[in-house]
Amino acid sequence: MRVTHDNQLTADSTQQSDYLAKYLALYFFVSLTAVLSVSAYNTIPSEMEVESPEMIPSDNSHPASDSNDFGNSENNSQLSDDHITQLQQQVIANFQKPNLPNVNVPERIIICLDVCCDDKSSLFRLGDGTTFTPFNMMKRILDFFLHSKHAINKRTEFALLVMTESEPLWAQNFTNNLKDIFNAIDCTLLKDCATNGCTTESFDFQNVFQLIKQKVGIPEFKQEECILPPPYVVRMLVLYGRSNCLPLIPQDDPYFIFLKKQMYFYIDILLAHEEECGEYKCAEIYDALQDLDNGYSYVFEVSRNATKIHDCIAKLLAHPLQRPLQRIANYTFGVRQ
Predict the structure, then answer these.
(1) 161 and 79 part of one domain
(2) From what superkingdom does this record's organism come (predicted)?
(3) pLDDT beyond 80 at 259
(4) Backbone phi, then psi, for 7, in 5-degree steps?
């Protein structure tokens, strides 16, 4: 039995060495290809940038070149260098990313639902003319998200954390019974429909972290057991609907610092804001919410666009252990010409 165990350890060590050798070979191959393909990168637009928010122009966009190719040779050279640098940084980032098991383990998803908005009369409109209030649209996309996740893995569990005007409330413990979670959502929305819109200027997420500390257990990541899948992963899905109330993210909060270091805890964000961004604080809120990101989050924003909010919630169906980083996620079909 001792010999068998030693042989197994030797085999595991050899397998890990093989994986490392393959990754190193891939790195040098990609780097060499990038250097040899400078001219190709000049004609191929990048798909590796994060989808720019509606209210913030992309800093990565390049002005259209004029017809004088000679006059723009220096700009083209700079563009090529930028593409090569970006590609190399992404390869290095993949090396630095922990070697987590790519397994569809059960998820425990905390629906962090904002029940406040600034203008309840603003509507989402479908293609057939059907309109939805912000609350009803949130309920609609949650219906799609919960049923889809449950169909993918019936062991997925959901909890409901409600963000009222000034404080968070834990409304439903983890359950894989969709009826329970929908009843909790309905009760939450019915209570809030009788209240006025949001009047506070800020919302402190420190209280949210304290609730998570009390209610949620997070599996521990151990480097020596990194190839073994955890019993589950925890994901907090923040659905933020305010356009004038700044979220306060306490970067020095000890438990928030702890959460950002956990390999099996993820925070995804969907901001649904008003359309007239010039009259609200949409850009400031979007920037503040990104402080929740530890590098592995998916962050989306949408105004009163019914199509886009459904697209965003569909992209959030991906399992945290099986999805790429958002900045290199590609949702196009077919071969790029």
Answers:
(1) no
(2) Eukaryota
(3) yes
(4) -65, -40
Same structural domain, 124 and 79: no
Residue type, 131: T
Distance CA 71, CA 31 (A): 29
Do 52 and 58 touch, CB atoms closer than 8 A?
A: yes
Residues contacting residue 125 through CB under 8 Å, at least 6 positions apart: 131, 132, 304, 306
Q: Tell me, yes or no, whether 66 and 140 share the same domain.
A: no
Query: Residue written as tokens 């900045």?
Result: 327
Beta strand pairing status for 131-132 and 124-125?
antiparallel
Report the distance separating Cα 16 and Cα 18, nearest Å.
Answer: 5
Range of the domain at 9: 2-96
Determine the Cα–Cα distance for residues 145 and 298; give it in Å rounded to an integer.
15
Q: Is 229 exposed, middle or buried (0-12, 13-18, 19+ CB in 10 A)?
A: middle
| Helix, strand, coil percent values for the chain (each to nearest 5) | 45, 15, 40
Question: Which pLDDT belongs to residue 67?
Answer: 36
Query: With bands split at pLDDT 50, 70 and 90, how would you rate the model's confidence at 73?
Result: very low
Main-chain phi, psi angles of 314, to 5 degrees: -65, -40
Residue that finishes a domain, picked among 96, 125, 159: 96
Residue 103 lies in a domain: no
Measured CA to CA, the distance from residue 264 to residue 98 in angstroms comes to 11
For residues 208 and 85, state if they share a domain. Answer: no
Residue 114 and residue 81 share a domain:
no
- The pLDDT of residue 160 is above 70: yes
For 122-143, what is each residue's pLDDT tens digit? 899 998 989 999 989 999 999 9
Dihedral sign from CA coordinates of 103, 107, 112, 113? positive
Listing from the earlier edge strand, what are the strands of the sheet with 168-175? Answer: 168-175, 157-163, 107-114, 233-240, 265-272, 299-302
Domains held by the chain: number: 2
234 plus 184 within the same structural domain = yes
Q: Kindly state whether residues 113 and 18 are assigned to the same domain.
A: no
